[in-house]
Amino acid sequence: xxxxxxxxxxxxxxxxxxxxxxxxxxxxxxxxPLLPDETVLVDAKPTxxxxxxxxxxxxxxxxxxxxxxxVDAIVAIPALVFASLVGGYVWYRxxxxxxxxxxxxxxxxxxxxxxxxxxxxxxxxxxxxTSASRFERRQGYGTITISHGVIPTGFVRTRGLQLxxxxxxxxxxxxxxxxxxxxxxxxx
Length: 188
Prior knowledge:
The chain has 4 helices and 11 strands; from the N terminus they run E-E-E-E-E-H-H-E-E-E-E-H-E-E-H. A 4-stranded antiparallel β-sheet has the order 5-6-7-8. A 3-stranded antiparallel β-sheet has the order 9-10-11. It is α+β, with helices and mostly antiparallel strands. Strand 7 and strand 8 form a beta hairpin. The protein starts with a strand and ends with a helix. The chain has a domain of 123 residues: PH-domain like. Helix content is 34%, strand content 29%. Helix 1 packs antiparallel against helix 2.
């Protein structure tokens, strides 16, 4: 199954891999070495909606800069530079994070020039928390936090592997629950 929302391809699949589907069982998924017979269930980046406020402000400043170009170019140039810098910042932040969920692991890959991976095994997951504001739910994304223990709530800062701004978070969480159950019970 696949969900393409705002240009983000989120794959989650309950099927068994086949020879006709080379993308799901590749030996290396963009720098992440996969184990033999490991299947990629979800391959996603944070949705653009995470930065909606940034992009709205940049767009308004950019449009204001274009409109002021007719009056005074000295005002227009800084406005357009600001809008471009904010747009570049958002593009950079979004493209430096990638979430992979396989049938064995949950992996967060960060970095643009250098790569850092943080991962946990399905068997080691002790707690999972999903959250989404009303706006996030309406746009179809949320945050999944996974930990090795019970995730504290309240005034304590959340610790764990966090998949922030992940599209279709409810189906991703369901896929993690299903695979975790299968791995712990030994049915796979």
